[in-house]
Amino acid sequence: EVQLVESGGGLVQAGGSLRLSCAASGFTFDDYAIGWFRQAPGKEREPVSCTGSSDVNSYYVHSVKGRFTISRDHAKNTVYLQMSSLKPEDTAVYYCAADYGPGWGCNPEIGRYDYWGQGTQVTVSS
User: Fold this and answer.
1) 88 within 8 A of 125, measured Cβ to Cβ
2) SS3 of residue 64 by DSSP
3) pLDDT on residue 40
4) pLDDT digits (tens, 9 = 90+) for 37-91
C-alpha cells in the first residue's frame, strides 16, 4: 500500500521552529521527487518546496527562502522540512506528495504529483 505520512506539526509562536517529516512506503522512494505543499484557510493549495529524486536540487517558494530547508534521508525513506523564523502567514495544513522522476530536478506543479499524504496542521501564533 502506498503511504505518505506527515508528522511534526503543531502550535508555535511567531519566530519559532518546527521540523516536519514525511515518511514514505509502498513505492520506490528513490525514483520520486518529493514536494511539500500547504493550504491555508480560504486559500488555494500552493507548493512550498520540493527536492529531486537525486537529492541534489531543490525548490522553495519565495516567501520561505532562507527560512525553510528541505532534506532527504534515503535510508529512512523520509523527507524533512525544517521550518524556522515562522510567521503567522505560514499557518496551514502541510502535505507531502510524490512525483515520479528519477533525476536531479523537481517540478512544483501540483498536478504532477501522484501520491499524497493526509496533512499535518501548522499553526503560528502572533
Assistant:
1) yes
2) helix
3) 97
4) 999 999 999 999 999 987 678 999 999 999 999 999 999 999 999 999 999 999 9
Q: Which helix (H) or strand (E) holds 2?
A: none
State the virtual CA torsion across 39, 9, 71, 69 in degrees, nearest 10: 70
Residue 85's nearest CA partner among 18, 10, 32 is 18
Other residues' Cβ atoms within 10 Å of the Cβ of residue 7:
13
Query: What cell numbers appear for 34 in the block?
Result: 518529493
Write out the three cell numbers for 19: 521540523
* DSSP at 111: G
C-alpha cell at 114: 501522484
CA distance 105 to 96: 17
